From TrEMBL:
GO terms for cellular component: microtubule. GO terms for biological process: microtubule-based process. It holds the Pfam family Tubulin. Belongs to the tubulin family. SUPFAM superfamilies: Tubulin nucleotide-binding domain-like. It comes from Cryptosporidium parvum. GO terms for molecular function: GTP binding; GTPase activity; metal ion binding; structural constituent of cytoskeleton. Signal peptide: none annotated. This is Tubulin beta chain.
């Protein structure tokens, strides 16, 4: 959920949760992810969303200007 708390009853999921999540203090789970984009706007959307607070701020990597829908530039 958006607080980083696991809600489930599967023992198998709990055994393998460390594949996709790191356990933080208080039993909170933080996604093991690096988010990369050429423009900061998409990252701002992720941060402002309901799950944005789960991601570590230093795992957001973005440029200052996008590719402007030019695939060869991006």
């Amino acid at each position: 959920d958006p607080t980083g708390t696991y809600h489930g009853e599967s023992d198998l999921q709990m055994e393998r949760i460390n594949v996709f999540y790191n356990e933080a203090s208080g039993g909170r789970y933080v996604p093991r992810a690096i988010l990369v984009d050429l423009e900061p706007g998409t990252m701002d959307s992720v941060r402002a969303g309901p799950f944005g607070s789960l991601f570590r701020p230093d795992n957001f990597i973005f440029g200052q200007s996008g590719a402007g829908n030019i695939w060869a530039k991006g």
